[in-house]
Write a structure and sequence with these properties.
By secondary structure, the protein is of the alpha+beta class. About 55% of the residues lie in helices and about 15% in strands. The strands form two sheets. Strands 12, 13, 14, 15, 16, 17, 18, 19, 20, 21, 22 and 23 form a twelve-stranded mixed sheet that branches. A six-stranded mixed barrel has the order 2-3-9-6-8-7. Keywords: Cell membrane, Membrane, Transmembrane, Transmembrane helix.
Length: about 850
């Protein structure tokens, strides 16, 4: 009963303390609101995207079940089995080139591949053809402009098939609705503009504008040739009474090698994985902001308690125990923490509403921001646990204040220590944060890595603060008194150096890391890759066309190099006889099992091959099937020379033995395949060729493009610069989201910095009075303090630059696998901003202390 009586009394005291309002807790609340707001915003957006994808799952998938197969269509037996379970929608997709029908072959002197009257502007464009059957779409609706029935738009009228195209294609080719468009051997009439496709978000990234046409129309183009990269898709709308499990069981009896079967519960796995991973990373950055804000929480609690030491001593004189004191102010602190966390949740939800239009445009799916309980409760728990973890230490230490303070008039000698119970409770709160992160991230390595990174950062900045203070103490004493006093302020007892280094340093480190990684990636895309990368990738070159293609390249001026390899698509179905669904593979290579992979064959190693293990087969080899596998995949699959990989190609299963593994440098964009077969396996299978061409000028680019797309209209030409620009746009958008979240960390750090620099105003006031008595002017004091803040800011910026560049180097080399070079422009801008912020906040915080008169201190002393 005594326990509950004491708890009740503590709550009563806390309620009375709260009557004074939140004065002095502004930064406390702001730090919590910023961190919780970042986590709540990311969680709300992620939850809303998941809800949108789940709500429209069947429309995104195209049906209850979707079956995909490359190169060859499903058998009549399989289609009959599908039709026995419900409605079936057939679809064929592939890439091709499209151009206005008036484009003619180059005329004039053709020896150099450039026509004298060749158009200056390209008149062809890469497109993604999507041929659909009469049941399309099974779920959802296609939005066209003008609003016409899709069947009427795609129907054959007056001997011409219709098509619906995206607006971007009209803009590229200067066409309008009603004009004609040549695709392959056929001319299509553009009868509508595609505004929205219900199943478009399942294909998150496309290389060209969409062209919708009918199945009969794509047959008339002549593009469905053996070896062409064609995807046959079948969407199944189940009849009532037929479950997904039953349908999959029936399909298993007619399943063909190479089938990819998905149900609507995984309607857009690539898009879901992308947003889930992005949400996790943004949440971790938000947690970093919350942890920086935790320093502000601790400082706010400590500053508030310093003003109540006499009140605490009075309570002790009246018989209050240490536990009663701690509980009283812990209840007050957690009530304020709850207020700050609720404000953060409101801020996060508001930010999510602002992001909704951008998300809807990106996904082409209406995203209604709906606050969900789980992410908001998670953000609230993050805020409360962070506040308790950082507040318990100063609260427990304050409980040791002696009643003798009322009679002495000054504090006890030596620092006050928290109890071991408070230290354990604080550690438990930290463990709770790690557990919540584990549950949210679904990735133990990521969560533990984040926890380890936080602990390492705290240790790093603490060690850096000790080193800086010791170095400052051992520096030769400058002759100028202003600089001497500024250096002394850095290492004197009670100096703000540790707090400044951690609060501002961690925020600057995160911002430096993000900006350096983002700048390196953009520089790689915009500068490095185009210099070494080919100008064009040419796909779907038929066997009968490869010689003509080589002749075109040979007579076109400005072509410095050309590479060509046979290519066929296949799907990995087993590793060492174990189906891929049951195989144990590393997460970072699981992507290779989700779809078809490009494969080739060769008698001799491709130019620049670096064998990692095993040996290449002899040039005249004609034995059992062998392959040379990418070393990264081999390591992730846990295989090596002598092991087997089963692949399905054109519906037939092959099980070659791994003869060797090789290292592939993907960043050069050279022609590479992860699988290289020995001769005699794929030679006679229907396949196409892919090629790359390197040019030395823009004129050569245009000449090669016009000649190939005119003389070989079925060949797909991918301009590398266009692809890199699309990738660059995606990277910029992602980088902007991460930088905005990282800026929250920096803002929290700046708030804590302002609080830290202003925490010892009384000491600054006392120092200023002493200096004035000894003859110092107001200018002398201001210059001394400015030098101190400049030195603190410069040291913090240097430490943050070292840590940030180190983290950026590790990330770039480990994940981006490209060369890291510090970009001095963004780095200098961030660091100069940190130094100026330290100076401005420091001088702003002490302006009142310097303006006070000296007589109150002199009279009391």
């Amino acid at each position: 009963m005594a326990f509950f009586s004491e708890l009740k009394l503590a709550l009563r005291f806390a309620r009375r303390e709260l009557r004074g309002g939140v004065r002095g807790f502004g930064i406390f609340l702001a730090c919590l609101a910023l961190g919780v707001g970042a986590v709540a915003a990311v969680g709300t957006v992620s939850s809303s995207v998941d809800t949108a994808l789940s709500r429209d799952a069947k429309a995104l998938m195209g049906g209850d079940i979707q079956i995909r197969q490359t190169h060859v269509p499903a058998s009549d037996e399989a289609i009959t089995a599908m039709e026995s379970m419900g409605r079936v929608m057939r679809m064929v997709s592939m890439r091709s080139m499209a151009r206005p029908p008036e484009t003619q072959a180059p005329q004039g002197n053709a020896t150099n591949g450039v026509a004298e009257n060749a158009p200056e502007k390209r008149r062809s464009s890469l497109v993604e053809l999507k041929a659909v059957g009469p049941n399309y779409p099974l779920f959802g609706a296609v939005t066209l402009e003008p609003a016409l029935p899709l069947a009427d738009v795609l129907a054959e009228k007056d001997g011409v098939y219709g098509a619906a195209v995206e607006k971007s294609l009209l803009m590229r080719l200067g066409l309008a609705v009603g004009d004609d468009l040549r695709v392959g051997q056929s001319v299509l009439r553009i009868r509508a503009e595609v505004v929205r496709e219900p199943d478009r978000p399942s294909n998150f990234f496309g290389l060209g504008p969409r062209v919708l046409l009918s199945l009969d129309a794509i047959k008339s183009t002549g593009l469905l040739r053996p070896g062409s990269v064609v995807r046959y898709v079948y969407a199944l709308g189940l009849e009532p009474g037929v479950s997904i499990e039953q349908a999959k069981e029936r399909l298993q009896a007619v399943r063909e090698p190479g089938w990819q079967v998905r149900d609507y519960k995984s309607s857009s796995p690539g898009l879901s994985r992308f947003f889930d991973n992005l949400a996790v990373y943004l949440t971790l950055v938000g947690l970093a902001a919350l942890l920086v804000g935790g320093i502000g929480v601790a400082n706010g609690v400590r500053a508030s308690l310093e003003k109540k030491y006499e009140a605490i001593a009075s309570l002790k004189c009246l018989g209050a125990t240490r536990r009663l004191v701690v509980w009283t102010y812990l209840a007050q602190t957690m009530a304020l923490a709850l207020l700050g966390s609720v404000l953060g949740v409101a801020l996060g939800v508001g930010s999510a509403f602002l992001a909704a239009p951008l998300l809807a445009q990106l996904l082409t799916v209406p995203v209604a921001i709906t606050p969900a309980f789980k992410p908001l409760a998670l953000a609230l728990m993050y805020g409360l646990l962070t506040a308790m973890a950082f507040a318990l230490w100063p609260l427990s230490a304050a409980g040791t204040i002696s009643p003798a303070r009322l009679f002495r008039g000054y504090g006890e000698a030596g620092p006050r220590r928290p109890s071991w119970q408070a230290a354990m409770a604080s550690a438990c709160c930290g463990a709770g944060l790690i557990v919540l992160t584990l549950l949210y991230a679904h990735n133990a390595r990521l969560a533990l890595g984040f926890a380890g990174g936080v602990l390492a950062a705290m240790a790093f900045f603490r060690i850096a603060a000790v080193v800086v203070m010791r170095v400052a103490a051992r520096l030769p004493r400058p002759r100028k008194p202003r600089l001497r006093h500024a250096i002394a302020n850095i290492h004197r007892p009670g100096a703000a150096t540790p707090a400044v280094l951690f609060s501002l340093g961690l925020g600057l480190t995160i911002l430096v890391t993000v900006s350096q990684v983002d700048s390196t990636l953009q520089r790689s895309i915009s500068e490095q890759l185009p210099k070494d990368a080919p100008s064009y990738f040419f796909l779907d070159i038929q066997n009968a066309q490869i010689d003509t293609f080589r002749d075109i390249v040979a007579v076109t001026r400005g072509i410095t190099r050309m590479e060509a390899q046979p290519s066929i698509r296949g799907r990995i179905t087993a590793i060492n006889g174990v189906p891929v669904e049951q195989a144990q593979v590393a997460d970072d290579v699981r992507w290779a099992l989700r779809g078809d992979r490009g494969m080739t064959y060769a008698a001799t190693p491709p130019k620049g091959t670096k064998i990692v293990s095993g040996q290449w087969w002899p040039a005249d080899y004609h034995g059992k099937p062998l392959i040379c596998l990418d070393s990264g995949l081999a390591e992730g699959f846990g295989v090596g020379p002598g092991d087997t990989i089963t692949v399905s190609i054109l519906g037939q299963a092959f099980t070659p033995t791994i003869a060797c593994t090789r290292e592939i440098e993907w960043s050069t964009l050279s022609l590479n395949h992860t699988f290289v077969f020995s001769p005699g396996v794929l030679d006679n299978a229907p396949h196409s060729w892919i090629a790359t061409a390197y040019t030395d000028s823009k004129q050569a680019d245009d000449a090669l493009f016009e000649t190939v797309t005119t003389q070989l209209p079925s060949v797909v030409a991918i301009y590398v610069r266009d692809v890199l620009q699309d990738v660059d746009a995606i990277v910029r958008n992602i980088g902007m989201a991460i930088r905005l979240t990282a800026a929250v960390t920096l803002l929290a750090g700046l708030l804590v910095l302002a609080q830290t620099l202003a925490a010892n105003l009384e000491q600054r006031y006392y120092d200023a009075v002493v200096f004035k008595v000894l003859g110092a002017t107001r200018r002398d004091i201001l210059v001394t303090l400015a030098l101190e803040f400049l030195l603190l800011g410069a040291v913090t910026a240097a430490v943050a630059a070292l840590a940030g560049c180190g983290l950026a180097w590790a990330f770039v080399n480990a994940f981006l696998m490209t060369q890291y070079a510090p970009l001095m422009g963004p780095l200098a801008l961030i660091l100069c901003g940190g130094v100026l912020a330290t100076l401005a906040l420091g001088l702003f915080g002490v302006r009142h202390a310097l303006s006070k008169p000296a007589w109150p201190v002199l009279r009391n002393e």
